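Blackboard transcription, Thursday session:
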Amino acid sequence: MTEPLVACPECDALHRRRALAPGTKARCVRCRAVLYRRSYLDLDHQLALVTAAILTYMIANCYPIVDLRIQGRLNSATLAGSVLSLWQEGRESVAVLVFVTTLLFPLIDLGALLVLLLLIRRGRPAAAFSPLLRFLQALRPWGMIEVFMLGIVVSLVKLSNMAQVLPGIALWAFGTLTVLLAVILSMDLHNLWDVGENAIKRPAAVPQP
Amino acid sequence: MTAPHTLSADAVPAVTTAAEAGLVACPHCHLLCRDAAGDDPALRDRLRCPRCDGRLHPRKVASLSRTWALLIAAAILYIPANAFPVMRTSTLLSTQNDTILSGIIYFWTSGSPELAVLIFSVSIVIPLLKLVTLSFLAVSIHRSATTGTRPRAHLFRIVETVGRWSMLDVFVVALMVGLVHFQGLAVIQAGPGAAAFGAVVVLTMLAAHSFDPRMIWDRASAGPPATKQTPTGNRHG
Ligand SMILES: [Zn+2]
Ligand SMILES: [Zn+2]
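(Written on the board underneath:)
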């Protein structure tokens, strides 16, 4: 059993919790903020998606995003390579910002989610469950793969005026990753608290109604 | 719940809040907990959520002062972010410094007006809108505004969701720097404006995170937020 009442995160109004159909969300009657959601995806689907996203992330970061050709000379760049160039030029703060929002946080996000889902699946969330989930929630707004994807598109248009642009493998991988992440981010992290709690609780410890 | 329904455009259903019911919603896992601290500030700091062990505060701590501090810092950095070049293009023949605005003009004149509009929106309009809107919301809290509650709540939600897209130009600069590295032929470097602009985006995002939207509703419902036991009747003011 989950908590029968829920407070709106944006206006504090109390609501009685109701069961939702898959793919729907409950909104606050007063401010219309989303109170809670139910995904179409069950735990196994979520695990599969997160695994696919981690693999896509690897491909996206191991191969060049585009190859650029000017007067017979070829240059290709990965995301990590771009971050390194920024750093070497003395723009350390920009390098750190790009590194954190496009490389580090998305990876930690996916990794943490994978660990949490595996813990729930095992049925015995470890002591690391709560700190990890709280960390993931705090980190989430700072992962910006979808903004970066738009940045790739804008850069390509800009570069196509000055050189010959050949799309690389990572370009398609980033596109795929953006779609996968959109689905993953549409899953409500807060559901994991309930799922996790139910997984720890032994049958005897279930509170009376 | 016998609130009379006034049929104004701004009519909002009468509700009981968690604070009025003596409850605190955990800011991390949203578990509703009984507010054992009451008016004791020492106890308040030690209260923790039984489910996730997070600190339990009914509202974000020092929300308005944090929001103001971050907004002011962002507003100051907004000037170098737009005045200094974000990108420096060196070719055999010339060196060109681009600010955010000149980058937008370049797209406009080189036959990509839709990209010019896109970058103008995320790099100029959204940061400005965030600074102005968050200041307006903070002022309305100071003045205990009771009207336009729902529009203000909507405004905050928009500002909170669109903010991240301002990072677009920083990513474009990063990619250009990584890609255009042809020694002796052409090199692109990031200018000091890029760092300032990135800082503006981060600071405005932090400012939105610090702002507690529940304050909008606290002041709109009857009286100061301390009156926890207010009955839910006369809410439509
Ligand atoms: Zn609400
Ligand atoms: Zn909690």
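Lecturer's comment: The beta strands of chain B are 23-25, 32-34, 87-91, 95-98, 181-182, 186-190.
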